[in-house]
């Protein structure tokens, strides 16, 4: 394959393009889901192809094909040139790329147990056990458990001389139940909602979740929610559990620091950003204890890789330091706008999509608190656990999140359980009200395998290191 | 494009090698081009030639699914064998009713040569023209313009042979000033039927009228929801409540309410994939002919859409709304939602509003909050206006709504006689066809700074 791509690059150079890269991506997926004792999904997918990105006449063209023969690659390369020349018809400013050392390298993620060598029998046996335990009550209307595995092989070759091979394995699992009593319907999940947790690790990641240890608690909490009081409408102190903190970071810091959004190129669908360039180095985004870092180098995250899809080496870059907004996620095209070189955030959803600026592992750095101490230190408040709904405006200011459930905090202790809890706020006001973050013992990198952006839609696999954190004067319970 | 005869020959050759009791294959092939523009220039311009081939092997009540995007015969055979191995290694699914039997499909014209042949240069010419419309007001323009063609085929060992070529063109655009934005969008199987410059005028007009928006306090307001706003609410209602899976697991807002009045009698909602003035499509991914299904008839809950597995569970028949075999656990889902038009002219609706809000479009709706009550939240964007005494008084800053759609649609005052096609998650095999709706009460629960 490398020879085919190099031949294609050579042909593109002979056509006088300003820059080009060819990306081969092969993805092998396995999805398993058990619902109420039956296997409702057991699917394997193999997807391969090549995407060719060309800069000609100062503008971009991209074409992709699933047929990876030399003739088809040349045809696709010619199409990419034709598209770039069409793009140039509306050109206002020629594309300029930040300088880059062309790497010749190989990268592989680390795993102990290749998930594709673990038998389907073993995987199903575990899920069936989980399923049986979850359904040990007539009030459980539905139990759903699943696993997902992905192996991605990539080859990147550019006109600048880069030749990069990458091999990345991802694994994930989780379960949820729906309880129903004739009137009320409630859901609980483990270890996270919407499919569970995911990492760039092997099957050992699934084993370490200890799924069976959590079935009884999850089932009983779902049943408990059926008769729970509604979350009160009030303004109060909240403590947000780590999985929901991950999503809070995702929506209110990850997306608004994507420099392409800031520069307006995602405005029609995903929107823009309130974190405009004039605010860089000046905006007090959060309180002094808030430190948020984009780190594509940390072990096991879904946003961990060797090189991004422009051939830029994985990096660790601060976004928020002691509450101050200090950095963006950038690409080779956007970084020069702020006088920088790319920090390696260009990622494509497969061979048939053009790379966009995407999150890597966007981590809320751990603080100093133990969770028990933090709850004990809170006189009145609400503890939010696991996400149920999410929404944020198109500049990432006004957000609203719903939780699967919440607990009242009274005089330093967890009390009543609340159903359908919501909290809402304005991003910088909210982060400036953060007065406590739990320490590294509570910190975990949560995988988010469904981050949508771009047209045509691209789904990125990103992650967020987070631990529970406390926020003051937050509006909660606005659903009625 | 491969063509019906060649495609059938290729896939039949593989199916003939199946060792399973039954097997089916779903083919989805696409050639799609998409031009994105922002800051009044094209910044992304892409083309993709791809296909997805799903094989399902059936051994009694055991099924296995494997898929590939390679049309190389050896890869197809390997994928078929993978599906067989997967089927062998799993327990029986008591709800699996076997594969569909052959059926007749409605003869629908779903292809357009001009759309299929529309080149990147053609798209760039259109974008140049609409940018010029925005330039005249010194606004910038951003959006995406896609043209695509493709083929869908479903074959099985029981004799199902379904094939349909498709084409579709869609555009969305936002005109932007320093303080405002305005949205417009178009969709058709026939690219020449989209009046691009008129859409640009609509976006520019909204942007112009909503400059220097004022803030208003959240609360309960009368609203005029334009088709893009209605469409995005319906798309979420479809996802959380109009499919058989949500209905059977009781999380649907229709569960336990069939035959009961749930919203105003002005509201009629159904799925009709055979509506020829829409993005029509004759069969689902199990090869079952599409049927018209009524969800809500004059305010009364009527039913949901089914695939074969969920229909078998309820001892009813599939309505022709199955997803691809890899998603067979998801149940049926609506692909072609239609809200029936009313009798009121759109222009006359605003005149009836005492004090209310006109919403062009919603952003980032989420409908998971309380699905049995269809509680959703989301933000307004790209053209939100205050209406007083029947007149639009200017733009307002965007607001967050959090409300039950059942409660909101109970308060319907009028439904427009005009409808628009709205692009959905289903691209060339489905869309929404919706009117403008006047609701007497809609709850806004938050505000933002722009």
Number of strands of chain B: 17
**Largest pleated sheet of chain B:** 6 strands, antiparallel
Strands of chain A, count: 24
Report how far the terminal alpha carbons of chain A are from each other.
58 Å
Globular, elongated, flat, extended or rod-shaped: what is the shape of chain B?
globular
- Helix content, binned percent of chain B: 10-25%
The strand line-up of the biggest sheet of chain B is 3-2-1-4-5-6
Count of helix runs of chain B: 10
What do these coordinates show?
The complex is a heterodimer of chains A (480) and B (450). Chain A has 480 residues and is an alpha+beta fold. In chain A, 19% of the residues lie in helices and 40% in strands. Chain A is built from nine helices and 24 strands. In chain A, the strands form five sheets. In chain A, strands 1, 2, 3, 4, 5, 6, 7 and 8 form an eight-stranded mixed sheet that branches. A five-stranded mixed barrel of chain A has the order 10-17-18-20-24. In chain A, a hairpin with a 4-residue loop joins strand 5 (140-158) and strand 6. The termini of chain A are far apart. Chain B is an alpha+beta fold and 450 residues long. Chain B has two domains: 4-208, PmbA/TldD fold; 219-447, no CATH class. Chain B contains ten helices and 17 strands. Chain B has helices at residues 4-15, 73-88, 113-117, 120-135, 196-209, 227-242, 244-248, 308-313, 346-351, 405-410; strands at 22-38, 41-59, 62-68, 140-156, 161-176, 181-188, 219-225, 269-271, 293-297, 300-301, 336-339, 355-370, 375-388, 391-395, 399-404, 412-423, 431-447. In chain B, helix 1 (4-15) crosses helix 2 (73-88) and helix 4 runs parallel beside helix 5. The longest helix of chain B has 16 residues, at 73-88. The mean pLDDT of chain B is 96. At the A-B interface, strand 1, strand 2, strand 3, helix 2 and helix 3 of A face strand 1, strand 2, strand 3, helix 2 and helix 4 of B. Strand 3 (59-65) of chain A pairs parallel with strand 2 of chain B, so a sheet runs across the interface.
């Amino acid at each position: 394959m490398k020879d085919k791509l190099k031949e294609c690059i050579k042909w593109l150079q002979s056509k006088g393009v300003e820059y080009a890269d060819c990306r081969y991506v092969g993805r092998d997926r396995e999805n398993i889901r058990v619902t109420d004792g039956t296997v409702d999904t057991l699917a394997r997918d193999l997807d391969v192809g090549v995407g060719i990105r060309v800069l000609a006449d100062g503008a971009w063209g991209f074409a992709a094909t699933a047929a990876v023969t030399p003739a088809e690659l040349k045809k696709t390369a010619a199409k990419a040139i034709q598209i770039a020349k069409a793009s140039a018809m509306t050109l206002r400013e020629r594309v300029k790329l930040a300088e880059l050392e062309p790497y010749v390298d190989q990268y592989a993620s680390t795993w102990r147990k290749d998930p594709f060598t673990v038998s389907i029998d073993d995987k199903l046996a575990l899920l069936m056990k989980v399923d049986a335990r979850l359904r040990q009550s007539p009030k459980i209307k539905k139990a759903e458990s699943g696993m997902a595995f992905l192996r991605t092989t990539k080859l990147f070759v550019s006109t600048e001389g880069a030749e990069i091979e990458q091999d990345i394995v991802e694994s994930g699992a989780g379960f949820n139940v729906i309880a129903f009593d004739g009137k009320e319907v409630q859901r609980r999940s483990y270890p996270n909602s919407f499919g569970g947790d995911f990492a760039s690790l092997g099957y050992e990641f699934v084993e370490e979740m200890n799924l069976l240890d959590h079935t009884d608690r999850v089932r009983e909490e779902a049943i408990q929610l059926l008769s729970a009081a509604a979350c009160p409408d009030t303004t109060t102190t909240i403590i947000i559990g780590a999985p929901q903190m991950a999503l809070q970071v995702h929506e209110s810091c990850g997306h608004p620091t994507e420099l392409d959004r800031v520069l307006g190129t995602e405005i029609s669908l995903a929107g823009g950003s309130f974190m405009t360039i004039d605010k860089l180095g000046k905006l007090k985004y959060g309180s002094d204890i808030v430190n948020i870092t984009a780190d594509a180098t940390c072990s096991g995250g879904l946003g961990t890789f060797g090189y991004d899809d422009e051939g830029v080496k994985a990096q660790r870059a601060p976004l928020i330091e002691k509450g101050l907004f200090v950095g963006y996620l950038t690409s080779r095209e956007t970084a020069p706008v702020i006088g920088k070189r790319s920090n390696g955030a260009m990622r494509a959803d497969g061979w048939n999509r053009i790379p966009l600026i995407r999150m890597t592992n966007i981590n809320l750095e751990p603080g100093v608190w133990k969770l028990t101490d933090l709850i004990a230190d809170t006189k009145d408040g609400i503890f939010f656990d696991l996400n149920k709904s999410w929404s944020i405006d198109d500049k990432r200011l006004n957000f609203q999140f719903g939780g699967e459930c919440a607990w009242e905090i009274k005089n330093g202790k967890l009390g009543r359980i609340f159903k359908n809890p919501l909290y809402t706020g304005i991003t910088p006001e909210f982060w400036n009200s953060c007065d406590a973050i739990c320490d590294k013992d509570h910190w975990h990198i949560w995988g988010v395998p469904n981050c949508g952006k771009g047209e045509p839609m691209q789904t990125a696999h990103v992650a967020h290191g987070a631990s529970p954190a406390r926020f003051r004067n937050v509006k909660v319970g606005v659903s009625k | 494009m491969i063509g019906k005869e060649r495609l059938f020959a290729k896939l039949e050759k593989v199916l003939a090698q199946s060792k399973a009791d039954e097997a089916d294959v779903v083919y989805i092939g696409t050639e799609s081009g998409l031009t994105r523009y922002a800051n009044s220039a094209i910044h992304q311009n892409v083309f993709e030639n791809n296909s997805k081939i799903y094989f399902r092997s059936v051994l009694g009540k055991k099924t296995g699914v494997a898929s590939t995007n390679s049309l190389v015969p050896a890869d197809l055979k390997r994928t078929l064998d993978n599906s067989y191995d997967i089927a062998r290694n799993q327990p029986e699914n008591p709800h699996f009713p076997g594969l569909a039997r052959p059926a007749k499909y409605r003869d629908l014209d779903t292809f357009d040569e001009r759309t299929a042949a529309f080149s990147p240069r053609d798209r760039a010419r259109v974008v140049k023209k609409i940018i010029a419309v925005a330039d005249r007001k010194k606004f910038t323009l951003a959006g995406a313009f896609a043209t695509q063609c493709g083929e869908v085929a479903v074959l099985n060992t029981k004799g199902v042979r379904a094939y349909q070529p498709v084409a579709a063109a869609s555009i969305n655009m936002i005109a932007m000033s320093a303080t405002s934005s305005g949205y417009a969008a178009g969709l058709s199987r026939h690219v020449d039927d989209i009046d691009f410059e008129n859409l640009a005028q609509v976006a520019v007009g909204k942007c112009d009228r909503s400059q220097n928006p004022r803030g208003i306090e959240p609360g309960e307001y009368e609203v005029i929801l334009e088709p893009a706003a209605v469409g995005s609410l319906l798309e979420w209602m479809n996802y959380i409540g109009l499919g058989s899976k949500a209905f059977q697991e009781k999380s649907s807002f229709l569960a336990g309410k069939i035959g009961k009045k749930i919203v105003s009698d002005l509201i009629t909602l159904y799925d009709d994939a055979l509506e020829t003035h829409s993005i029509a499509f004759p069969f689902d991914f199990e090869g079952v002919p599409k049927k018209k299904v009524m969800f809500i008839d004059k305010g009364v809950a009527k039913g949901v859409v089914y695939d074969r597995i969920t229909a078998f569970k309820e001892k009813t028949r599939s309505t022709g709304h199955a997803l691809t075999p890899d998603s067979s656990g998801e149940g049926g889902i609506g692909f072609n939602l239609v809200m029936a038009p009313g009798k009121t002219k759109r222009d006359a609706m605003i005149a009836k509003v005492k004090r209310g809000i006109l919403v062009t479009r919603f952003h980032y709706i989420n409908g998971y909050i309380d699905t049995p009550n269809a509680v959703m939240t989301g933000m307004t964007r790209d053209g939100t206006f205050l209406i007083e005494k029947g007149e639009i008084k200017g733009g307002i800053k965007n607001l967050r709504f959090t409300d039950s759609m059942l409660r909101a649609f109970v308060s319907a005052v009028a439904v427009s006689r005009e409808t628009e096609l709205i692009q959905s998650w289903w691209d060339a095999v489905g869309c929404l066809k919706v009117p403008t709706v006047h609701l007497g009460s809609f709850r806004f629960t938050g505000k933002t700074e722009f």
